[in-house]
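Before the break, one more example. Copy the sequence into your notebook; we will annotate it together after we see the structure.
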Amino acid sequence: MKQHRVAILQSSYIPWKGFFDIIHDVDEFIFLDCVQFTTRDWRSRNRIKSANGLQWLSVPVGADTRRRIQDVAIPDPSWQARHWKSIQHVYAKCRGYARWRPLFEDFYLGTRWDNLSAMNQAMVRTIATQALGITTRFSDASDYAPEGAKQELILDLVRKSGATHYLSGPAARAYIEPARFEEIGVELAYKDYGDYPEYEQPWPPFEHAVSIVDLLMCTGDEAAYHIWGHRQART
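Here is what the structure looks like once it is written out:
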């Protein structure tokens, strides 16, 4: 039987490099945006590194948690120009700025985003394919009409996607029952984020837990090396 490696995560706003590391390691990546929205979370915000330390970039979507991620509207577009201005201010002198400016400038100034899930998914797909050369297939959980909640929802998606292997983020160890995956004949693995090399980042000390924007702006076309390429170089 041919292997089919799958990962399932909620979409995030300009997520960190570990998000793309998981995408790179699987054959199909499923956006889990049919679940409840959580406030003050990675769904609608992320961080960049500035002269004053870590700086949050937050998309104003309100505090209502009685919505699914895919239903979260973005009523006011004024944040887009502000976020782009902040990114320009922080990274204009970095080696990758000229290389990636058109991509991000088009994202922030070329499109009026009115739905959080659509925006997050579009940016993740664009960065994955155009900036990192990832060939993974993307899909949306809603396409599979999944049933159940929490672990049952994941198991249903795993079955319906035809997965033979499921790659999970490490935080899911708290609620995942490995035996349930064994029962359906799916091999379970957890992603390890512990081996990323540092790169030249403005305003030390170095911080790994920042948006992928930081890595792209600081390393240019070498971003993939700092996510997974360094592992291949050691073999």
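The mean pLDDT is 95. The beta strands are 5-9, 28-31, 45-50, 53-58, 137-140, 165-168, 187-190. Try to locate both features in your own notes.
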